[in-house]
Amino acid sequence: MYQIRLYVAGQSPKTIKTIEDLKRLFTDELDNLYSLEIINVLENPLAAKDDRVLATPTIVKLSPQPVRRIVGDFRDGDRVLESLGMVNQ
Amino acid sequence: MRNLENITERKQADNALRTAENNFHNVINKNADGMVVIDTNGIIRFTNPAAQVLWGRKEEELKGQLFGFSIEEGETIELEIVRRSRPPAIVEMSVAKIEWEDEVSHLASLRDITERKRAEDDLKKAYYELEKQTSLLAQSEKMSAIGNLVAGVAHELNNPMMSILHFINYCLKHTIKDDRRYTILEDIKKETERCVDIVQNLLTFSHMEKEGEEEFQELNCGVLLDRVLKLLAYRIEKQDVIVKKPSAQEIPTIWMKENKIQQVFLNLLNNALDAMMDSEKKEIRIEVHDIGEFYEITFADIGCGVPRKEIQRIFDPFHTTKPVGKGTGLGLSICQSIVDDHGGKLSCESEPGKGTQFKILMPKDRIIQKESMK
Amino acid sequence: MSKHILVIDDDPNVRKSFSLTFEDSAYHVETAKSGEQGVEKAKSTRFDLIFLDLKMPGMNGVEALRELRMMDRDVPIYIVTAFHKEFFDQLQSVSHDGIDFDLLQKPVSPEKLLSITVGILEGSVSIGGCYVSN
Questions:
Q1: Which of C85, C86, C109 is closest, CB to CB, to B165?
Q2: Per-residue pLDDT averaged across B255-277, rounded?
Q3: What are residue B64's phi and psi, to 5 degrees?
Q4: Which residues of C66-75 are buried (b: 16+ CB within 10 A; e: fewer)?
Q5: Using CB atoms, which residue from C104, C115, C123 is nearest to A79?
Q6: Residue A66 and residue B372: Cα distance in Å, rounded?
Q7: What is the mean pLDDT of residues B90-102?
Q8: Domain range for residue A51?
Q9: Residue C54 pLDDT class (50, 70, 90 cuts)
């Protein structure tokens, strides 16, 4: 069971699209074996600091270990999955 | 003729006497204050209706009974009269010496001041409460002002700290490792990173005293605990304190006001550190126990402990054992209010010379919280 | 063709920090000392990434953000600021207006700044999770 947290800034149309794209990416790759928590840093800066998140958007994979944290442009789905250690499921 | 005159005179005298008796009877019977005649043996010889009402007893029940209170002529004293099926009456008594049936006796006048006493007590309580709230408010405003100041300073430090970090990094990039200055530059980098950390921690706590109502949310205590431990890290390290805390799985997620519970943890840990300042060995043990519908979170230290006579008052506002200027004594009182507000209970156990343990009972269930707050 | 980064910050040392840190990188950094100057530069040059300070005299970060977005809807704009509720209040309204931006926490270490920038410009990058300055 993958536990994923996505940190974003606000809810602009572009951010919402990023969220939707990532949801689709994870569902395609992991079926329903994941939980995705969206955290808006604007609303909850402390949560970002607790998780050592320095920039948006950041994806933090909490489980399974090891914890992975990726930052930047998420348009390349394969790259995202690879960086999170999620390929070949 | 003479006899008739005598009879009329006697009749007039009788009438005058009877009227006088009636008058005095009325005065005594209708007197709002209780009147009790007590002989030299302390036995009640007479009570007026008001006195009977005070005791809640009939005249026959009181006559012949021991009065029971000590008689002090000329003194006004307060006493309490216990009675059946009613709360006791608080009474103000004045005593005068009189003659009763040709014997030296005492007349006790008893004024019912129960209502007045209750009003006085209520007023005293209200005043005490007002004093406490005013102090708490002043404290809170002071903390808020300090919080704002700290936040302002912290933010101002961000730019220069970032600049130093980047400049040092640049210097390191352009200095050969053999250069004596290389390690020094690395040290500068480390120290600056430390500054950044400290300022980050400060900011986390600078909004602890924010105005406005905080909301309840479901949060993991572990996160709060880690934040607080990080803030106190310098003190803990400097004083060589061993901190034992529960594993991540053992730490519960509960409904709470984040800043408030954070404040409680900070306060208790700070107190523990203070208590161990002069101890040889320093250890703080934080444990979590599952107790039915509550989680019990304990903070234990092996410091100087709290003397037995102090422990009753430890949560009283304004109670402090710290020297002037070092503590207001409001900390634990505030903590208790906060925990009460959450439907929980904060208690303290201590053995002087051995250590102190604070126990926070927090309800697992939101509903329980709401119930307790009624 | 190297990618172009614009840094808008009224603090000269912060501008210098960015310049020095990116000096040996594949990226070309231009700086602006005010919102107005930043907007001017953006008019004449197409940037691949803009770092924008929030608190500046004159045209502040939020105003500059709006102007920049009107000119270019796609360029990634990163507001560089302390992660503090107070500062975020003004950004909430900008977000509600549908204007897109991202956040970068200040202060950021040189190492993290480089990693994050690569992540933004080249595609997601894995980043360590120690304290801010590591």
A1: C109
A2: 87
A3: 90, -10
A4: bbbbeeeeeb
A5: C123
A6: 42
A7: 93
A8: 2-83
A9: very high
C-alpha–C-alpha distance, residues B218 and B369, integer Å: 13
Residue A63 inside a domain? The answer is yes
Whether cis (ω within 30° of 0) applies to the bond prior to C57 is no
Tokens of B185: 């530059």
A65 interfaces chain B, CB cutoff of 8 Å: no
User: Best of A37, A39, A50, A67 to disrupt the B interface by mutation (most B CBs within 10 Å)?
Assistant: A50
Q: pLDDT band at B119, cuts 50/70/90?
A: very high
Distance CA B187, CA B358 (A): 40
Report chain A residues whose CB lies below 8 A from the CB of B227: 50
Q: Which two tokens stand for residue C108?
A: 């950021």
Residue A89 lies in a domain: no
Q: Which of C120, C121, C129 sits opposite A52 (nearest CB)?
A: C129
Three-class HEC string of chain B: CHHHHHHHHHHHHHHHHHHHHHHHHHHHHHCCCEEEEEECCCEEEEECHHHHHHHCCCHHHHCCCECCCCCCCCCEEEEEEEECCEEEEEEEEEEEEEEECCEEEEEEEEEECHHHHHHHHHHHHHHHHHHHHHHHHHHHHHHHHHHHHHHHHHHHHHHHHHHHHHHHHHHHHCCCCCCHHHHHHHHHHHHHHHHHHHHHHHHHHHCCCCCCCCCCEEEEHHHHHHHHHHHCHHHHHHCCCEEECCCCCCCCEEEECHHHHHHHHHHHHHHHHHHCCCCCCCEEEEEEEEECCEEEEEEEECCCCCCHHHHCCCCCCCCCCCCCCCCCCCHHHHHHHHHHHCCCEEEEEEECCCEEEEEEEEECCHHHHHHHCC
Domains and their CATH numbers in chain B? 31-112 (3.30.450.20), 116-211 (1.10.287.130), 213-374 (3.30.565.10)
B→A contacts (Cβ < 8 Å), by residue, are: 200, 204, 223, 226-227, 258
**pLDDT reading at B45 higher than 50:** yes
CA distance B344 to B372: 8
Interval C27-55 mean pLDDT: 96
Nearest-CA neighbor of B337 among B316, B354, B353? B316
User: Domains in chain C and their CATH numbers?
Assistant: 3-122 (3.40.50.2300)
Taking residues B119-128, report their average pLDDT: 92
CB A70 within 8 A of CB C119: yes
Q: Length of chain C in residues, anyone?
A: 134
Asked if A56's CB is within 8 angstroms of C105's CB, the reply is no
Q: Neighbours of B (≥3 Cβ pairs closer than 8 A)?
A: A, C
Q: A61: domain CATH number?
A: 3.40.30.10
Contact residues, chain A, for C108 at CB < 8 Å: 54-55
Indicate the number of domains in chain A.
1
Q: Is residue A88 part of a domain?
A: no
pLDDT band at C133 (very low <50, low <70, confident <90, very high): very low
Q: Which residues of A touch C95 (CB under 8 A)?
A: 9-12, 42
**Amino acid identity, residue B173?**
K
